[in-house]
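In full, the data.
>
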Amino acid sequence: MAEPWYNTSGKNGDVVCSTRIRLARNLANYPFPIKMTDEQKKAVCEEIKEIFSRTNSYLSENFDYIQLDELTNSELLSYAERHVLSPEFISGDKTGKAFIVNKDSSISVMINEEDHIRIQSVQAGEELQKTFDMADKIDNLISERTKIAFDDRLGYLTQCPTNLGTGMRASLMMHLPALHESGAIPRITSNLSKLGIVMRGTYGEGSNVTGAMYQLSNQITLGLKENEAIENLVAIASQIVEKERNYRKELTGNIAVQDKICRALGTLKFARILSTAQYMELISLVKFGMSTGLISGITQGDINKLTNMVQPHVLLPDSSASERDFRRAQLVRDALKSAE
């Protein structure tokens, strides 16, 4: 089985955990999902399924088609916790919803989310161009075999007007503990909004920030080409990465910060019960310490793998919170035994 993309680290992995590209597309011969009947939704699912099953052997062998109503709530939540599916997609009625995912979960296609098709491509680290190229290949595959709703003036037509144009959302998941600790995030967020860039919580719009994890993404999709949006995001991200690293250097010289980081590692290495929220806050400090050389003996890739393993429904589906907290602490102790 292919190693999941989220078990690795990539370019600028100390700050940029992952890159994601989402493309919103709609089939020209159907109304938008909000106006569709269950029969129409199922017809869209079958059409997209047929495109993947009838194409070259690589795609047919390396992608799985899964209907939402075939999975338990815990299984669906585990996909959302690993950022394979959006929380919105798995909520509410499951009828006429399906997704296609490849073996390492780096590419997924959500069918009948907010739009008929949501193509998602993800890579570890800062890899905007590579991630876009992967999504673009899937987009071309689908577009060659069915008619996509497109207007010469407005671009790709989408259910929500804010996605008109390219239909593309490019985002970076960034670990910003030093900027978070220093209180600089509100000022940065305000400045970014003037440039058509938005900074959100860990799971996107309306979500809270967990473990100093922020999503940086483009806000403008109309009147801007995909490559221009990506170039803007790359330029902004490089500035934020530099600011975060500089703030880390300043903060690491503070003995109180060093104590906080080392206490976090000690707690994780010896805790017998550990909630998800506690883990995320403590591992954020450990990652901070690793990036500045204060903590050694473990890699960013190891932490990424551990973080995904200990999410509630990935860890122990259909178990009680107390059982998960106990098992999570066991896994964390084992994974961090060589860290110092």
